[in-house]
Amino acid sequence: MYFRALNRIFTKFSFTNKCETALYTRSMACSRYEYVKSYEQDDKILPNVWIVIRVDGKKFHKFANAHKFEKPNDENALNVMNAAGIAVMEEFRDIVLGYGQSDEYSFVFRKDTSAFKRRAAKLLSYVTSMFTSSYVLSWSQWMQRPLSYAPCFDGRIVLYPSDENLRDYLSWRQADVHVNNLYNTAFWKLVLESGLTNQQAEERLRGTLSSDKNELLFQEFGINYNTLPAMYRKGTILLRKRVVIGSQDEQKGRQAIVPIHEDLIGNEFWKQHTEILGKYVPGKYVVSSLNRHLERQLAKQLEKEATIAEI
Ligand code: DGT
Ligand code: MG
Ligand code: MG
To answer: Where is the Thg1 C-terminal domain (predicted)?
Structure first.
């Protein structure tokens, strides 16, 4: 009791002093309520750690059904996700890599970023809301039907102290897309083409290994899983690159955020894109032929010359 009274006097006293000083130095509004600001917690992230922010769609099984997404992969819907990911990386220059699959996107900030003074809540809420608003803005560029309700995304921050931890995190997400996509591809073939009910397809696949599902796809549907679009099998990696198109003079390459669909679990990826873990200088990306999706994702960025020059 006695302690609480003392504490109240102390809080009031220090507040009065602070407020009076503020009144002399700048014309800020002070009120007796201002002490509540001291209740806000410091959420500054530790120095020298990889900051990963992952956003994930809320109840996207329902959202995908409501908007008639193709099963198991809707190319255009995945491109809306990629366009939103690109928009986030255009806004937050300290993100060195984005990785998207299904209804989720992960963003990796440079270890030494000082963006928003490394304040966790600011970083997380800006990235999540930027991703969501960009998803909505990009929708009509890829989808035929209109949005029937507002999508929303959750967001989380995870910190990884070592390069190995970061690589394992990204490998985990890419292994996840492989397992899910192989299962879903076989499942929907059985349902949509062989006429099995969902339950029958589930029973048919229960306990099967990857090799069994590969064999089933090949024997029953003539599908070589490894030839399906890489975006479905590997997800999408977004990297900042100096883009050189065709035989264009290399010096004329302009920086853009490029979607690629490579294996990132093996060492080859990290040898090829050394800028991610090393001192960050965007690598070169030579596009020999623009496929229609890459062209659309890049064209929008390359149009915005002024923005790109600043990256
Ligand atoms: P959550 O995240 O707990 O709120 O719940 P969901 O339903 O978002 O579950 P999650 O995130 O584990 O799984 C993603 C769902 O999104 C999954 O049910 C399939 C759906 N989805 C994502 N991309 C596609 C697509 O391209 N086509 C179809 N048909 N569905 C997709
Ligand atoms: Mg989800
Ligand atoms: Mg998900």
So the answer is: 164-250
Per mean pLDDT, which range of 68-72, 142-146, 230-234, 282-286 is the poorest? 282-286
Q: Name all residues whose Cβ lies below 6 A of ligand 1.
A: 56-61, 64, 69, 71-74, 77-78, 102-103
Domain membership of residue 269 (yes or no) is yes
Cβ atoms of residues 231 and 265 within 8 Å: no
- What contacts 145, CB < 8 A, 6 or more positions away? 67, 68
The answer to whether position 290 is within a domain reads: yes
Fill in the DSSP letter of residue 1: -
| 262 within a domain of the structure (yes/no) | yes
Distance 180 CA to ligand 1 centre (A): 11
Per the DSSP assignment, residues forming a β-bridge with 157 are: 53
Handedness of CA 52, 57, 61, 65 (dihedral sign): negative
Q: Is 154 assigned a ligand-binding role in the annotation?
A: no
For 41-56, the pLDDT digits (tens) are 999 999 999 999 999 9
Q: Which domain holds residue 303?
A: 237-310
Q: Looking at the domain assignment, is residue 52 inside a domain? A: no
**Residue 307 pLDDT exceeds 50:** no
Atom number in ligand 1 closest to CA 73: 26
Check residue 255 and give its pLDDT.
Answer: 86
- What letter does residue 288 receive in the DSSP assignment? S
Binding site annotation covers 43?
no
